[in-house]
Amino acid sequence: xxxxxxxxxxxxxxxxxxxxxxxxxxxxxxxxxxxxxxxxxxxxxxxxxxxxxxxxxxxxxxxxxxxxxxxxxxxxxxxxxxxxxxxxxxxxxxxxxxxxxxx
Length: 103
Ligand SMILES: [Zn+2]
Description:
Layout: H1 4-24, H2 29-45, E1 72-77, E2 82-87, E3 93-97
Antiparallel strand pairs: 1-2, 2-3
The structure holds zinc ion.
Zinc ion (ZN) is lined by residues 59, 61-62, 64, 87, 89-90, 92.
């Protein structure tokens, strides 16, 4: 078991790293990826999930911080009722379904 105080510090460090990753994404791409990589490593090491708001913003295959209009595209596929986030760095796509409209 990992003590609560360790998890708390881990969460704190993760959120600092992800903020830095967001800030550096346009000017220092590689540095931004490194921050994401570290944040994910801390999360795994201390069994802490990444904050929900970052869930879609991290490319799981190349560790890029995804910022729409900078290094990723977000599009709607109404046919599939999906939002597709595509990482421009490595081409990886993730689909997120959205709710069906009530008829
Ligand atoms: Zn990627």
